[in-house]
Write a structure and sequence with these properties.
The protein is an all-alpha fold. The chain contains 16 helices and 2 strands. Helix content is about 70%, strand content about 0%.
Length: about 325
């Protein structure tokens, strides 16, 4: 195999892809998520201290920025994010705003520890979204109560302190962090006895997020014509959430920040398959642009465009679950 002017063995290419996946994709995304969480936490503090429309607008923007990092990280939902429940602890939806309003109307304490012990539907990004936008998305700073300020402060603290920071720590800090399990796959890892097992796990995560977006997140509101069960209905961020999931998958396949991705393994042995996968990823990503309304509206008035995106995601899912999975089984032998 030729790489530039140097000959590279497939074994060393596998090692490069694993290293770049860990350092250029996972580390980058979780570090930016951690940074985005700190920024949002500061914005919430500013909002609760000086409750102005300008500070509310900044908090909303920072929420969307953090969501972008989080949703892209769902392109590789494996390891601690699943085993330690960081995903459901922060990203359970749809929310129950009636239950939230009841909580806020009560005298129950709302410290970070209290929020940590609430049902998952009352923790994480989406209750915070409801605090910022309100039902219908028209909330202003003047509508924010003292109890809501306390709740939103504890919500972002719970997200950051109890979930995002521990998730980052689990991957990259300590002698037994998960990144070491990934980097030593097939070379002493107790999590992945072979590199094939690691790559199949990564491909499964990519395939799963396709299926989750197309056959669940998009499909259920579409088929029931129920805009209340979309992912981010208060902010109107639902469609961006969906696309970010697939962009995260794309980064795993293509590589990120100059690093090698799964595509390098595929292209080295089957260029036609690589081009087919790249084309289908691009088709899925680009299909979102055809949906020009908020998803909460598109399920009623742009159903053809929504169906097209779901179809593109189904095709991509089948390609990853079939051809790409078979490629890994046939070509990654260690």
């Amino acid at each position: 195999m030729e790489t530039g002017s140097n000959t590279q063995t497939y074994d060393s290419l596998e090692a490069d892809v694993i290293q770049d996946f860990t350092n250029n994709v996972v580390f980058f995304r979780y570090f930016t998520l951690l940074t985005a969480g700190s920024t949002l936490q500061n914005s919430v503090t500013n909002l609760t201290t000086t409750t102005s429309d300008a500070n509310l607008a900044q908090a909303k923007l920072d929420w969307k920025n953090m969501r972008s990092d989080w949703e892209q990280s769902e392109g590789f939902l494996l390891g601690p994010v699943e085993s330690n429940d960081y995903d459901p602890n922060t990203d359970t939806w749809p929310t129950d705003y009636v239950q939230m309003d009841s909580l806020l109307a009560s005298s129950n304490p709302l410290t970070t520890d209290d929020v940590k012990n609430l049902p998952q539907s009352l923790r994480g990004y989406h209750p915070l979204e409801y605090m910022f936008w309100g039902k219908g998305g028209s909330k202003t700073a003047a509508n924010i109560t003292a109890r809501q300020k306390q709740y939103m402060g504890s919500l972002i603290s719970d997200i950051q302190v109890n979930n995002v920071q521990p998730l980052y720590n689990d991957w990259f800090l300590g002698t037994d962090n998960y990144s070491q399990q990934v980097l030593t796959a097939g070379k002493g890892s107790t999590e992945f006895s072979t590199r094939q097992a690691l790559f199949l796990n990564i491909i499964s995560a990519m395939s799963d997020i396709c299926d989750e977006v197309g056959a669940s997140k998009m499909f259920e509101p579409f088929v029931t014509r129920d805009s209340t069960i979309t992912e981010s209905p208060y902010s109107g961020n639902t469609l961006i959430d969906f696309k970010s999931n697939i962009l995260g998958l794309q980064q795993v396949y293509m590589g990120l920040n100059g690093g090698k991705g799964i595509r390098n393994l595929v292209a080295a042995k089957n260029l036609d398959l690589d081009q087919k996968i790249q084309a289908q990823i691009n088709a899925a990503v680009n299909s979102f642009a055809q949906i020009t309304n908020r998803y909460e509206e598109a399920i009623f008035n742009q159903r053809t465009q929504v169906q097209n995106t779901m179809d593109q995601l189904a095709t991509l899912h089948n390609l990853l679950d079939g051809d790409l999975t078979n490629f890994i089984k046939e070509n990654i032998k260690d």
